[in-house]
Design brief:
Elements: H1 2-14, H2 17-24, H3 28-42, E1 47-49, E2 54-56, H4 58-82, E3 90-96, H5 98-115, E4 119-125, E5 139-143, E6 151-158, E7 161-165, H6 167-171, E8 187-190, E9 197-203, E10 206-212, E11 216-218, H7 222-229, E12 234-238, H8 239-247, E13 252-253, E14 259-261, E15 269-275, H9 282-295
Parallel strand pairs: 3-4, 3-5, 8-11, 8-12
Antiparallel strand pairs: 1-2, 5-15, 6-15, 7-12, 7-13, 9-10, 9-14
Helix pairs in contact: 1-2, 1-3, 1-4, 2-3
Length: 302
């Protein structure tokens, strides 16, 4: 019955038999048959079925809530029995936004794989948010904590931002001495799905909101960074992304006495998001611990 309970929980989290089947690597008919058998054993109807969706009955909702506790206890018991003997192994599926995946994860992945040779990593560079319940993803790396209370998050690092441009661009355009001066410059902008873009500049208790515009908008930072390095404009981007170019002086920090971000509430922090299991599988736990240790060594430029 424990396997049937796992299938039921996945159906609820995925929202359909077919999506649950994709995650579990089962045919939808097999998922449906398992639920039918479970309902027959319990003598209860757990789901309301229609051609478009499935939803829990009142009895199904109660059984689902108790089932998550059963699975948590079972995983806890298995972890206790195995202790530290369980060697990380299996397929680790990671979703990460494109720039962070290329610039931060790609260089450290070989060290993780060398440390855990029985783990295979599948990495998906995707700037769109993924649903960990319906997609076959173990860990997603995103800016900000999840809204879904069924997901857990581990903080990796602050997402500090830097306002930069090349020395050549700054030499050929009007000086930027105050936040308002940015308005007269071409700004290379991250897309937020909003019609109007602002930079928020703070210096102690003083905060200024500066409307900005530019001729290049992108969901990912890589095209903007390339444009900035080609003297195309002013760029506000994560410090971990521009740090090598600040150190080589290909880019110069603008308004260094001000903290600038594209959000009124700051640039946020970067988290590893995973399903809310109390005891993650060994290879997931190993990856989370490895990330925290590696990224804690990253420092902003001096």
């Amino acid at each position: 019955m424990l396997n049937q309970i796992k299938i039921l929980v996945q159906v609820v989290e995925s929202g359909s038999f077919s999506k649950a089947g994709q995650v579990l690597n089962m045919a939808p008919s097999s998922v449906s048959r398992s639920i039918d058998n479970l309902e027959h054993t319990l003598q209860s109807t757990l789901f309301r079925r229609s051609t478009r969706s499935v939803s829990l009955t009142e009895e199904g909702e109660y059984f689902y809530q108790q089932s998550t506790k059963i699975l948590s206890d079972a995983n806890k018991l298995i972890a206790e029995m195995k202790g530290d003997r369980a060697e990380p192994q299996g397929v680790l599926r990671i979703s990460v936004f494109e720039s962070f995946g290329n610039l931060v994860l790609a260089p450290i992945l070989p060290r993780f794989l060398a440390q855990y040779p029985k783990v295979t990593v599948e990495i998906d560079l995707d700037n769109n948010l993924v649903d960990l319940h319906s997609e076959n993803i173990d860990v997603a790396i995103r800016i900000g904590t999840p809204q879904d209370s069924n997901l857990k998050a581990r903080r990796l690092m602050p997402n500090l931002t830097s306002l930069v441009a090349t020395p050549e661009y700054l030499a050929s355009h009007t000086a930027i001495e105050q936040p308002e001066d940015i308005q007269s410059h071409n700004c290379l902008l991250i897309s937020h799905g909003r019609k109007r873009h602002y930079f928020y500049c703070s210096n102690g208790e003083e905060t200024r909101r500066v409307p900005v515009s530019g001729n290049l908008v992108s969901k990912g930072g890589s095209p903007l960074l390339s444009a900035a390095l080609s003297n195309s404009g002013v760029l506000l981007l994560s410090t971990w992304m521009v740090q090598p170019y600040l150190q080589s002086q290909q880019l110069i920090e603008i308004l260094p006495d001000w903290v600038t971000s594209s959000s009124e509430h700051g640039s946020g922090e970067i988290f590893a998001i995973y399903k809310g299991m109390e005891y993650p599988k060994p290879h997931i736990r190993a990856w989370l611990d490895f990330l925290v240790a590696e990224l804690s060594n990253m420092r902003p430029p001096q």
